[in-house]
Amino acid sequence: MNKARVPWKAVVGGSVGNLVEWYDWFVYSSFAVYFAASFFPEGNDTAKLLNTAAIFAVGFFMRPLGGWLLGRYADRKGRKAALTLTVTLMSASALLIAIAPTYESVGYFGVLVLVVARLLQGLSVGGEYAASATYLTEATPRGRRGFASSFQYVSMTAGQLVGLGLQIILQNTMTKEALNSYGWRIPFVVGALAAAVVFYLRRSLLETEAFDEEEREVKAADRGTIAQLLAHKKEALLVIALTMGGTVAYYTYTTYLTKYLSNSAGLPKETATLVSFFALLIFMCLQPLAGALSDRIGRRPLLVTFGIGSMIGTVPLMTALGGVTGFTGGLVLSLVGLIIVTGYTSINSVVKAELFPTHVRALGVALPYAISNALFGGTAEYVALWFKDSGIESGFFWYVSGCAAVSLIVYLTMRETRDVALSRTEQAAGDSVPTRV
Length: 437
What we know:
With 437 residues, the protein is mostly helical.
């Protein structure tokens, strides 16, 4: 089963666009420590970060709309068409942030520009996740889907690494004053330009066999509708619940980690950034290994391992991270957290895609996932900063553990999806395997 060939052109084509999408998405958070003062009046640093975190969360609340519109578009027009559209929207939003005016020049109008840009990003990413997940899953033979789809988080993490790498370069080549003044705009310009290259690459992708089958046999009006999604409401609720714990943990150990190490542990920003960079580099390399493992032993064992580890380990890990005094301690503890999170990140997209039939697969992945991300992932950083500002920072650690506990119940009771057939061709090749067409 695992000897099936991996379609590397499809994997690379789907992933490289995802890299740019998530580079733009995450670079907002990683550079927030530098541009927060540009858009808000004088105040304490935590208050400014709370404001920028709130705008970061706004993008997440646009994701359900993006999941609905672009998931529907992907089920009707194709995965390739949706992938091309999402990267175009992301390019426009990055350019808006790059040229946004500051508070000093136009008052709060700059904040309005930031909000509009984040709304566009949320719309784009809400559809990108599902289009990428369904494309990578459908374009890969059964038996290698876990491995191939893990490159979604490889590309997401690579996008964040590129952003952090650029931050490290700018930190070492520009003064702090220059970074705060105009240097933070550079990564957004880079993101907008890179998206143009990805647009060209994605236009050369082939459509998936599963979608081509469905396009020939099912009318467009019957694909990607809310009515069709409601016919699979159990699966939709599963996606919301299984995402809850994973998305909170993921954003805790990735986008929030640098701020936590800087604000709470007291590490210099440069050291905190280096910790995040090397931890994420190793985390990225773990994704295909865990994805391939799921092709052998199933998806549920990895999800259950994540659920138990996150529920039990978050409080002691985050407490210990808050007391680190140097690079090595921060790196080791961060890696422990990210290794636990790998049980979710490496396979969450393929599990969701395997739950739905082709005619509603993109929408089924997009909308429930976006809702869960809006409620839990997008607010994770804001909730963490709120607890800190209230003087009860440890309350956030228990919040993350509680979310993981809820998802663990789902992991323990859901069905295994590894051997589901996603197309009629796959079904014909193995009639004993349940089908999802």
